[in-house]
């Protein structure tokens, strides 16, 4: 009688063990999928490298403000500002450059230097190798339409 119970138990346990083995095998395959996810993590690392590569920002020039009006970039980073004049007045963008003084040789000016309402333009600029804060402004509204680029 007891032996019969043991035999029955074995009859149940063996297939159960087989099912568990198959489940583990399937899990191992799932683990392979996780390895793929790990590769994606490496791509994330490339994304970090991209952080030091060129960066671009979409900037709206309104009446009379920049949106956004604050940017953070890395030292030595190439920066492109894609400008759209969403206002009713003429606007542009001038970056003070490494010396943070306007109308000096290291300034960067938008192309074109005057954006009519609805116009788009670009301003290409390379951040200095030294961290700091650099001003920018619209030359037509230099009091209201200003902003800051933080170089880190
Ligand atoms: Cu303006």
What does this structure look like?
With 152 residues, the protein is an alpha+beta fold. The protein is globular. The chain has one helix at 2-52; strands spanning 55-61, 66-67, 70-73, 78-85, 94-95, 108-109, 120-126, 132-137, 146-151. β8 (132-137) and β9 form a beta hairpin. Bound molecules: copper (II) ion (CU). Residues 61, 64, 89, 91, 138, 140-141, 145 line the site of copper (II) ion.
Quick tags:
152 residues; alpha+beta; 5-stranded mixed β-sheet; 4-stranded mixed β-sheet; 29% strand; globular; binds copper (II) ion
Summarize this entry quickly.
This protein is of the alpha+beta class.
Identify every distinct bound molecule in the structure, by name, code or SMILES: copper (II) ion
Number of helices: 1
Largest sheet composition? 5 strands, mixed
Count of individual beta strands: 9
Our estimate of the beta-strand percent is 25-35%
The class by helix and strand makeup works out as: alpha+beta
What secondary-structure arrangement, pairings included, does this model have?
Elements: H1 2-52, E1 55-61, E2 66-67, E3 70-73, E4 78-85, E5 94-95, E6 108-109, E7 120-126, E8 132-137, E9 146-151
Parallel strand pairs: 1-4, 3-9
Antiparallel strand pairs: 1-2, 4-7, 5-6, 5-8, 8-9
This protein binds copper (II) ion.
